[in-house]
Amino acid sequence: MIPVELRAGDHYPAVIVGGGQAGLSVSWHLVQAGVRHVVIERESAAHEWRDGRWDNFTLVTPNWHCRLPGYVYDGGDPDGFMTRDEVYAWVRGYADSFDAPVAEGVHVRRVDRRDDGVFVVQTSAGEITAHTVTSATGGYHRPITPSWAADLPERIVQMHSHHYRNAGQLPRTVLVVGTGQSGTQIAEDLHLEGRQVHLAVGRAPRVARFYRGRDCMTWLADMGVYDVPAGAQAAAKRAATNHYVTGRDGGRDIDLRLFAAQGMGLHGRAIGITDANLEFDDSLTANLDRADSVAESIKNDIDAYIAREGIDAPVEERYRPVWTPDGGPTRLDLDDIDAVVWAIGFRADWSWLGDLDVLDSHGHPVHEWGATAVPGFSFVGLPWLHTWGSGRFHAIARDAEHVAIGIVAASRDVLAVR
What we know:
Layout: E1 2-3, E2 11-17, H1 21-33, E3 37-41, H2 47-51, E4 67-68, E5 71-72, H3 84-97, E6 101-104, E7 108-113, E8 119-123, E9 126-135, E10 142-143, E11 157-160, E12 173-177, H4 181-192, E13 196-200, E14 210-211, E15 214-215, H5 216-222, H6 235-239, H7 256-261, E16 265-267, E17 270-274, E18 277-280, H8 284-309, E19 330-333, E20 339-342, E21 346-347, E22 377-379, H9 393-417
Parallel strand pairs: 1-6, 2-3, 2-9, 3-6, 9-22, 11-20, 12-13, 12-20, 13-16
Antiparallel strand pairs: 4-5, 7-8, 8-9, 10-21, 14-15, 17-18, 18-19
Helix pairs in contact: 1-9
Protein name: MSMEG_0569 family flavin-dependent oxidoreductase
Keywords: Oxidoreductase
Pfam family, one: Pyr_redox_3
């Protein structure tokens, strides 16, 4: 990586906002094409892998999925799962491998486009201009907590999953709200550390870690599931929470029913506070059944693929629930809760896009495989940018190449005009 010191008045043919794996992947292509550019990163390159994950975090996708332009995982455990610090080192190593030009510690405050087509980029280091701008900031910006969180007693420690690092931050009894990938893995982390854990279970689906001799995500990759274009999927599918599973200790299922059998308290969706109690709805049974149903449907698809392709794979018994809830709504006395970890997601913040016409009426990016209606402005690194794999290491290289082709063409057009 080559550190860049931005100065007011600088002009670049291309500016990339965001120094994670997506922005760096576009940068790689621009370096190969000889396009002068800068990657602007508010913190430090790849910092989210170090600063936004808990101590025992691992990837949930196998290491062999980690492949960026000109740079693939070449370690000794392709079917394993890198830890937080290993992923951080791997992505930082990528930036170093091709001397990515990165301005670290610079905040992009606003981007506007002049009548002559040039972008004005207002940063904490001064105002610069560019002929193309690419947003590589992802879609998860501001942690979400419910409005009624403010009604919890002050003695109860509250923390968003983004800030959770380890069980030592929290007292004895912890409620985790949300069962996406972060919520379930944090609940497991606390459970393994001996905390009394309660978990508010949402509608997130789950997937088995292994089935019929291989990792389920390896089967799905071979089946082309991650390559299906976003346009071929219903909006509800694109908005759905990712399946929960873990890569911890070599990878395993996350079975919430097993946690309950071991003493974890499972509840339906948290809906608010009544008197001195935290109330949950009666969705627990349905949510657990739905998660199991999705996991089994994935196995059905794998079975069909194995049969269709004539693959020799071992036969495996199907999952059997080890615990069943009584049903009905539940409640927790607030006196019995010492801490809450909110794992209910993030809200996008596109306020820095100024008056650029690249968002719909709901504030969601409008693009076609990254390209927007504003000439020279593009997105990369968004979930479902083009396929299900777009939000994963699996398809970043493909998306970055497509977006970079547009940037290179725009840069050449500018040179031709001049």
